[in-house]
Structure formats: structure tokens, C-alpha cells
């Protein structure tokens, strides 16, 4: 459902992503890993059509992001870490409904999906309160609901549990696993190796914009004699800082 084909992005003299290729199938969670500045977020922004590649392309549900960007956007749900970008004066429901409208959902569909998401993400208590005074964790869950209210086939998550406490993180992780059960293709970027091991079927590791590993988590650990994923990750990128 996601096919990344030789994606490259240059910013003047700097090559942020260098000829990266990988695939994500339906019902699969692929962890996109790399140190800060490795090119993870740039890769996700190209797949989501937010950035135009310098060269290469990607296909989402068979749609080429360069030829049909509008159709690609309707197929994906996006949640990037950091500032969640909610409208403080609107309620949680109104924030989510606004993006449902942008996604082309009918009022009936939107209301049904919002109620389901409010229950799944444990937001019913504050769904009709203005988000301006919400905690970081509450805002993050509203942002997640906003990103997937239109039931996308493909989901891009960049640090989705950032700022959440343990119980809230567990809710989000269970939600991601539920998306997998429903056959969605998911790219999941996180600095938490524990999350990656819990959620991901495969990992794609990039270092300085280049692909250094693409394979199953258990195969990677077996290759490194059963070491935990964090140590393996450091071995793969730590020796390449020349």
C-alpha cells in the first residue's frame, strides 16, 4: 500500500534523504528509525505530499504522489510530533469535525466517527470542552483523532506518544495495533525502542539520509545475537558517524 521508490530530497547543498526505497503492506507496521537529523521526518513529509521530492517518488494505494497528490492526501492520515496545531477556541469535537469536513465526510459519517474515536481514545469526558486549557496528552489524543477521522488506508505517525503519560501511551499503542488489525498500512517513527519492539513488524533504519537496514525486527536481533534493539540500533548508526 506504500511503495517508496528512490526518494531523494536536497536542500541547496545538503542531501537530507538520499535514494531511499522501501515498502509497507496492508496490515503492517513499519518502524522508521534514525537519529535526529537522519531524514525520517523529511521522508514522511514527502510521502504525505507536504514536500516535493528532488527525485524519486512514492506510491500510496497505487497512486503516484507526484502525479495525483490530491488523491494521495485523501488516502493518508498524518500525525507529526511537536506542536499539535489545534484551534484553542474550538472544542475537541469541533477541531475533529473541521478536518472531517475537509476530508469530504458527510455530517452523519463525521459524527459517527468522532463518537467512536472519543470512546477509543478515552476522550468522552472532554470531547465538548475547548482545547485551549487541555494538557499536552489531551491535545495529542485530539490531534490523533483529527488525523484519522476520515478512515484513511495509510497512516503516518511521527512520535505519536510524545508528551503522554503511561496510561495514555498505552491507549494510543492499542489504537495503532487496532489499525493494523483493520488492514491499514502504517509507518511509525519513534525514539522509543521499547515502543518499536512492541508495535512494529519491520524496521527501516536510515542514517544521514541513507538506508542502512530494512527487515524484520526478530531477524535484526538474531543477526546481532539477540541484543536488545536499542543496542543494535546504536551499532548500526554509531559506527557510521565519520
TrEMBL record:
Domain of life from the UniProt record: Bacteria
Family classification: Belongs to the ABC transporter superfamily.
Alphabetical keyword list: ATP-binding, Nucleotide-binding, Transport
Gene Ontology molecular function terms on file: ATP binding; ATP hydrolysis activity
Matches recorded under PROSITE patterns: ABC_TRANSPORTER_2 (PS50893)
Domain ABC transporter: 2-233
Gene3D superfamilies linked: P-loop containing nucleotide triphosphate hydrolases
InterPro entries on file: AAA+_ATPase, ABC_transporter-like_ATP-bd, ABC_transporter_ATP-binding, P-loop_NTPase
Native source species: Thermobrachium celere DSM 8682
PANTHER family noted in UniProt: ABC TRANSPORTER ATP-BINDING PROTEIN, ABC TRANSPORTER ATP-BINDING PROTEIN NATA
Listed name of the protein: Sodium export ATP-binding protein natA
